[in-house]
Amino acid sequence: MEAMEAIMTRRSIRRYTGEQVSPELERKLLEAGMAAPSASNRQPWHFIVVRSRETLDRIPEYHRYSKMLREASLAVVVCGDNKVQTTDFWAQDCSAATENMLVAANALGLGAVWLGVHPKEETVSKTRALLGIPGHVTPLCIVSVGYPAEEKPPGNRYDESRVHGEKW
Ligand SMILES: Cc1cc2nc3c(=O)[nH]c(=O)nc-3n(C[C@H](O)[C@H](O)[C@H](O)COP(=O)(O)O)c2cc1C
Q1: pLDDT tens-place string over residues 68-78
Q2: Would 158 be classed as within a structural domain?
Q3: What are the tens digits of pLDDT across the range 30-53?
Q4: pLDDT at position 155, please?
Q5: Would the CB of 37 count as within 6 Å of ligand 1?
């Protein structure tokens, strides 16, 4: 898929067929994540790949908007290492990695959705506890991934009123 098409047709996919995502495609998603730009090229990310059905089912018990994980083939928990990037840039770095993975998933025929974690403190601490994430690492979000069992039309969000020529 051409890059513009992959960006413009990406949507949040919350229904999955149950078919397993191969380790090869998982690797491509992670490569896309790690290809993201980051402040001073620090690359402060860590990616926890969760395939365990038991663990995937535990997340919706504390994360209200993550029920689709019960159908997902895998989830990638995107985390920032606050020792590698000590400023707030870690969240932007990890967001860039997350969006890269969402676009790559679309290009690879997968469906995915971003599930917010940081800055919701309770969700952060429950995710830390569930996955054994150390204190200097913060989970930014969870990316739910599977083969799509729903189709969504591309969004059309271009809004001229949000574009400012030269000055506000
Ligand atoms: C920071 C962030 C947090 C999000 N958290 C959730 C979430 O917890 N659960 C969910 O189903 N979708 C979540 N989403 C997905 C948004 O709901 C979705 O991107 C938005 O409605 C636009 O739809 P689209 O992705 O299909 O274009 C999140 C997206 C972002 C960027």
Answers
A1: 999 999 999 99
A2: no
A3: 999 999 999 999 999 999 999 999
A4: 85
A5: no
Percentage above 90 pLDDT, the chain: 98
Q: Which atom of ligand 1 is nearest to the CA of 14?
A: 11
Ligand 1 centre to CA of 38 (Å) is 22
What whole-number distance in Å separates Cα of residue 102 and Cα of residue 26? 12
Work out the burial of residue 157: count CB atoms within 10 Å of its CB; fewer than 13 is exposed, 13-18 middle, 19 or more buried: exposed
Q: What is the pLDDT of residue 146?
A: 98
Q: Which of 7, 69, 114 to mutate to test the pocket of ligand 1 (most atoms within 8 A of CB)?
A: 114
Do 101 and 112 touch, CB atoms closer than 8 A?
A: yes
pLDDT at 14 over 90: yes
User: What's the domain range around 97?
Assistant: 12-151
Instruction: Give the N- to C-terminal CA distance of the chain in Å, as an integer.
Output: 36
CATH number at residue 141: 3.40.109.10
Q: Give 65 Cα–ligand 1 centroid separation in angstroms.
A: 9
